[in-house]
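Q&A log
Question type: sequence-to-structure
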Amino acid sequence: MGDSTIQPGYGQSAARFAAEAAARQAAEAAKLEAAKQAALQRQAQTAKGQPLVRDTFEAPRTRGGVNLSGGNAPSTTGFARWEGGNGSSGIPATGPLTVPQAQAEVKRLLSSTTLDDVTHDDLMSIQAVLGRVPADQVNSVVAGLSDAELKQWVEDLNDPGLAGGGPFRGLSTEERGELFTFLADNLEPTQAGRVFTALDSPEQMVEFGESFIQRGDVHDRLGFLMAVGETSFPDSERAASGQVIASAMDALTSDPGRLAIGVRALSEQNLQDGLLKAAGPAWNGMGPQGGQLQYTDLGRLQRITGAVASTEDHQARAAMFDGMGFVLGDMVRGQHAVQDKEAVADQVSGMMTNLLSDDLGRVLTHLSGAQGYDPTGSSFTTYAREQMLDEGGALSDLAGQMGELNLHSPGPNGRYDTAFVAGYFAGSVIRAADSLTAAELLGPDKAFALELAKLVVSFRTDPATGTLLSGAMSAAEQASVEKALSEGAGSVRNAVLDLLGMELSPGNDNGTPLGAFEQGLFAVYGAALYDP
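Response status: OK
Response body:
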């Protein structure tokens, strides 16, 4: 079986995935040692030499931050009432606590100096304090902690103490799990997101994040994606954040509308990481060439992309298409050793086709342009290239679909934006053809090239009058396109663009359909568009 963890440097060599297996073994050894220490700790007594005293109040379990019994019932029954802690306490010895009381006590317990550091007793006392707050007010207590205080709290949870123990140690694995479950049950998404981003241990990010996703409802899951969506996670945490984002997206597939909103809330990096982890990347060290990268859960990725594709949210579909371009280009085609690479690439490309569906123009509107998800056409070029390697794939139908749009009429703003999108589409497809050899271009069905040529010809303009000419191709022009397919290395580009019947010039603007079409080509090609 392959190791399910991956290195965070997704764009680097796949060989780095193999190193994770060794790191995982070391982590497992550390967990065993932590469990051993926890067993010893459970036998110990408190600093005052007294056995642990448990709260006697039996509160019902809570879900989604709501105490189902109502009233002022404490939010948990599982936390011990620890005595001592960091200095003296001004809170009542028993009974529920108000938010101000709990906040003040938690802040006091987190205060530390050189001579008075946060102890294990302090950490357990914090749990006990939170357990005495009504369930629907725990969120307010955490919200009252500054980012610095929250960061200190989660860092102290992992303090190894002196020589792996002592009074200044953090929580055991069991104690921390109990705390995470409590927080997952009682925090709203915004505060859960703050806790998640404050954690600096990838394993604990996954532990807490997965717990919150699993125990929450669709509102919690969407709220969580929106809370962490724009967070810039360091490379060391991206595998963990991606795993939890993938879980949240998968959990929302039963509600495609909310999933689409969540996708739009994610940064480009976080969406890419989530989609990659959804595919289940793992390193199989037993494969040829010293091992292979394998994708063990493409069905999960299919479920997520399919749910978004089923919506009318074209912006979310464009965002996901762009993210899938990264998966296909960087993590499948861009890796040296991928198990069943051709089959994986074909499946991922098919998911991208599904995202375009019969709404190509609307999706491309959100992909293209300066504010688009894929302004230079990188993801669409990657997709088009894969389609060509699959005998043209869906490109013929997509080119035909593009040609049916109203390309030659201005929009309400007076600009020919649909013509620009057509140029973006044509530029991406032609650039994909540029990257293929003559042998590779012999495979695709020539229908895609002819449909693309028809699209280009529809912008043929009389250079003297600026009026559109006939969009029909002659037999000779059709033959020139077919001949270009057998030559490769830029021949398709030259043959297709020559059909315009005039030289492309940087001086063209968006005041005409041809000018807008040329701007779309330029968005993909840049200055290279005008190279001979």
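Response note: Confidence is low (pLDDT under 50) at residues 1-11, 13-18, 38-73, 76-87.
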